[in-house]
Amino acid sequence: MTPIAYVTAEWPQAAVSSLADLGYQARTGGWGQTGQVLTADRLAAEAAGASVLVVEVERVDAGLLAALPDLRVVCTARGTPTNVDVAACTDRNLPVLSAPGRNADSVADFVIGVLICGLRRIPAAERHLRDVGWLVGDDLPYLHFRGPELAGRTLGLIGYGAIGRRVAARARDGFGMRVIHHDPFRLAEPDGTGVTLPTLLATADVVSLHCTRSPETANLIDAAALALMKPGSYLINTAGGGMVDEAALLAAVESGALAGAALDVFGTEPLPPDSPLLRCDRLLLTPHLAGAATDVAAHHAELICADLARLAQGRRPVHCVNVDELWSTGSRPGPRD
């Protein structure tokens, strides 16, 4: 009998063929197909008999695992398995595969896009043209909607992992920016761009967050950090809500201490329609879109299928979050164990 892989993640047709090449009958449903998240009971019913479960938004917990006794592998099409109870999977000897870096290029492209749009005030100019007209009062728009070139400016990256490095390459090699970074896990980079956080904030013309959301990074950019930033600098956050004190940021922008900011993530999502952030035209606000490139699904499918192939060959998967716990037992779990 052909083993079943049930997929609720976004999954291109080419990736369905990849699962078939690995010997699976692919069945798809849920969020990736309909945009609607399956309830636990519905997911258990639709994934009944599956050996492999691939989710992106749907949650996997101990109750679901108990309802799916045929499962051999759990996969999440995310960089970190925030929607999967990894401990419960480990208790059942189930590898949990993830897709780190799946949207790294998407986010890096987006950061460069909002950096240019924000510094050059492109969205504000476009809104003015539509809503008001060509002139700003009696002035030419040239006098009101302009900003600096990127070459020679300093970009400070807080976090220097897969996304941060891609942003750095684009900014440095594509636009001639000087790049510095702060990352406590990468203090001794050979390129010599690592600096302390206070130095970064005081030096950078643009500060962009690329750190992991955690208790340590909650409210990382608060009023005190904003006060350290270079006058007239610009802040970008695509990393995670809750890292920036939004009230303090709004005050800094409205006072002129900062030139502006681009926020793709917020402390409360969806952003309430009465949020005071919406009143400030020097804030570029987007609804959590940085990782929304159309190529991302192909990237996470490729990463997951590659690790499923390794498991089928009895090899250690590359992107398995509980690999050390499972392989230390010598059990070599996998899709057909």
Automatic annotation (TrEMBL):
Keywords in alphabetical order: NAD, Oxidoreductase
Limits of the D-isomer specific 2-hydroxyacid dehydrogenase NAD-binding domain: 113-290
Protein's UniProt keywords contain Repeat: no
GO molecular function terms listed in the Swiss-Prot or TrEMBL record: NAD binding; oxidoreductase activity, acting on the CH-OH group of donors, NAD or NADP as acceptor
Domain D-isomer specific 2-hydroxyacid dehydrogenase catalytic stretches: 38-322
Cited Pfam families: 2-Hacid_dh, 2-Hacid_dh_C
Record carries keyword Protease: no
Similarity-based family: Belongs to the D-isomer specific 2-hydroxyacid dehydrogenase family.
Alphabetized PANTHER family for the sequence: D-ISOMER SPECIFIC 2-HYDROXYACID DEHYDROGENASE FAMILY PROTEIN (AFU_ORTHOLOGUE AFUA_6G10090) (PTHR42789:SF1)
Protein's UniProt name: D-3-phosphoglycerate dehydrogenase
Organism from which the protein derives: Micromonospora nigra
Lineage: Bacteria, Bacillati, Actinomycetota, Actinomycetes, Micromonosporales
